[in-house]
Amino acid sequence: MSRRITYREALREALREALASDPRVFLMGEDVGRYGGTYAVSKGLLEEFGPERIRDTPLSELGFTGAGIGAALGGMRPIVEIMTVNFSLLALDQIVNTAALYRHMSGGQFSVPLVVRMATGAGRQVAAQHSHSFEGWYAGIPGIKVLAPATVEDARHMLAPALADPDPVVIFEHAGLYNLEGDLPDVAGVDIRSAKVRREGRDVAIVTYGGSLFKALQAAETLAAEGIAAEVVDLRVLRPLDDATIMASVARCRRVVIVDEGWHGVGLASEIMARIVEQAFYELDAPLVRVCSAEVPIPYAKHMEDAALPQADKIVAAVKGFFP
Amino acid sequence: MNAIDHPAPPPPSGPVPYDKPFALKLLHDMLRIRHLEEKSAELYGAGKIRGFLHLYIGEEAVGVGALHALAPEDNLVATYREHGHALVRGLDMGVLMAEMYGKREGCARGRGGSMHLFDARTRLYGGNAIVGGGLPLAVGLALAAKMQGESRVTACFFGDGAVAEGAFHESLNLAALWKLPVLFCCENNLYAMGTALERHEAQTDLCLKAASYGLPAQAADGMDVVAVHEATKSAVARVRGGEGPRFLEFRTYRFRAHSMFDAELYRQKAEVEAWRTRGPIHTFTARLKAEGKLTEEEFLALDAEAQAEVARAVDFAEAGSWESVEDLLRDVHTPEAAP
Asked: Contact A104/B111, CB-based, under 8 Å?
């Protein structure tokens, strides 16, 4: 059995469950309370849990993210919401220089059980300063875990294991997914360790995550009509990467397209390509291909923004390149 | 000869309002820090301690006076010039020295070094080498204490350089907004590394900055352990009483270089000498002697005891072991509990 639910509602249910089940959990961030959340994720939670636990903050990303770290060290289980990944750069010092390092620098004395949630991604004509996809940067930092829920099931169930994790976990919610509806199975729980094959195939593996998952699935549908069976791998966890699932798909399909909304160069896609070359080079029948964002600040105008981002038709074209 | 840029304040006066045991405790702790730091400089020269080493010599009255006003359950967030703070809070000097040696017996197994001393037992949350980086952390520790209904105070140390960081302003505002039990302790030694306060701040009255966020702020003579202790004691009581955060500025001076790689081109030798005459240890010693609370024999005994402790600490560090390289990836993440 399952029920229809939006990605936003799934996130809210997860927050409500966490707040109700553990008095140490609280949510803090810009406009999470009275405003109801920038993306309305926390709407109604202030009324339910009160201002101590649904805590509006000043526009001080560095300050309140660091306060989240301190509160985690002090025995709480804070969920820090940073409005978008773009603004998380203002908090990057605390995430990278404190949260990610404290366990190691203290010789294992202090873990930081902090969860940071933030919106990421482009596609809504909000222009360059609101359209970054920096999850690949975060995925390069030892000491943190990075999650990218794409489905309503992951939106609903990734928070609980993230909160149970003794170390910092950063969760990226693609802003284009909040209104997405999906079927939420009644079976509870997901892991935060593995990638998942969302569609099985044998001709080509499309490896992706987050907002690009649905573009990849759409491309796979189009390709199926033309007799090409594409497998779609949803990474789900960007750090640590689930190499085993990726390499199994590589071995099965022997051709690989990596789809990542981050910029083309020096990013998550490059890392996945490197790992495939290191671990599964002899399984490949063709050079690796990536479909990423063009190396340009994301433009405002719709046609230009569309052109800058990975799209289903670009993925289809990339796959067809394998079958001339 | 040019006038001194930053004249030293007049020497402290007035009676020392403590009984003999506590007064000698303060003196002894200052001596312990002084000898530890002198020895650390020597060991740096000998190649036993590497990396960055920031000495607290000259500023001992601040850490000693302030930390003796805290209770054991209070939290401490410190900077990269924190050997003295760790010591006064109760970190064993041998364990501290072993950490600076990079040995497994160090408080952080040699992973942190001089700038990253941590001690869960005494609630020392680092040892933070990002200027201003500890302030948001202290706000969060205080938030946790408040949400859990604990009477814990979080003391957060930082230097005058940190007041130029956004973290300072964001943290003071947050702490005041949420009335959190944080005591912000600014160790104003007049130089942000080599940049004098008046060369990096348009407003050099640091208490005014804190007051602008609604924090009661007070400056104290950081060269006088009595002034530091009295100011901190009364501030801690009010913070613990639920009155919200407070700000203390301790006006002090670093006698040695910023770190071991500092030619000290930015300040006058005469200025350093003038402040040295106001050294916190010998002025306090003189006051105690004048009051009949300390004899020369007692001073020599305390001094010898501190030196002997340093010698034992060095022996402990020398006898320590190196962590196995096989454990390199340890403590990046918490190991998963066995199923």
From this structure: yes
Q: Give the list of residues 6+ apart from residue A129 with CB closer than 8 angstroms, or none.
A: A86
Report yes or no: B131 and B166 within 8 Å, Cβ to Cβ: no
Q: What is the DSSP string of B120-131?
A: TTTTEEEE--ST
Residues 6+ apart with CB under 8 A from A167: A103, A111, A112, A113, A143, A144, A145, B333, B334
Q: For position B45, what pLDDT does the model report?
A: 96
H or E stretch covering B192 = strand B191-192
Q: How many Å apart are CA A293 and CA B305, to the nearest integer?
A: 66
Contacts of B262 (CB under 8 A, 6+ apart): B193, B194
Which residue of B107, B147, B329 to mutate against A (max A Cβ within 10 Å)?
B147
ipTM of the complex: 0.97
Query: Do residues A182 and A5 touch, judged by C-beta distance below 8 A?
Result: yes
- Which residues from A are below 8 Å from B when comparing CB atoms? 26, 52, 57-58, 60, 62-76, 78, 93-94, 97-98, 102-111, 142-143, 145, 166-167
Place of tokens 């070359």: A277
Contacts with B32 (C-beta within 8 Å, 6 or more apart), sequence order: B87, B93, B306, B309, B310
Instruction: Tell me the residue ranges of DSSP E strands in B233-275.
Output: 246-251
Residues in chain A with CB shorter than 8 Å from the CB of B127 are 105-106
Sequence-distant (≥ 6) Cβ neighbours of residue A242 within 8 angstroms: A193, A194, A195, A235, A236
Residue B259 token pair? 């770190």
Name the strand (E) or helix (H) holding A88: helix A85-88
SS3 A3: strand
Residue B338: predicted pLDDT: 54
**Three-class secondary structure of residue A49 per DSSP:** helix
Predicted confidence (pLDDT) per residue in B201-238, tens digit: 999 999 999 999 999 999 999 999 999 999 999 999 99
Reading the block at residue A280, the tokens are 């599964």
B118 chain-A contacts, CB cut-off 8 A: 105-107, 109-110
> How many C-beta atoms surround the C-beta of residue B205 within 10 A?
12
Mean residue pLDDT across chain B: 96
A204-208 β-sheet, strand order:
A196-199, A230-234, A204-208, A256-263, A289-293
Using a CB–CB cutoff of 8 Å, tell me whether B338 touches chain A: no
Q: Give the per-residue pLDDT at A188.
A: 81
Write out the catalytic residue numbers of A.
61, 130
Cα distances (Å, whole numbers) of residue A51 to A146, B46, B191: 28, 56, 41
User: Least CA distance to A62: which residue of chain B?
Assistant: B167
- Give mean pLDDT, residues A183-190: 91
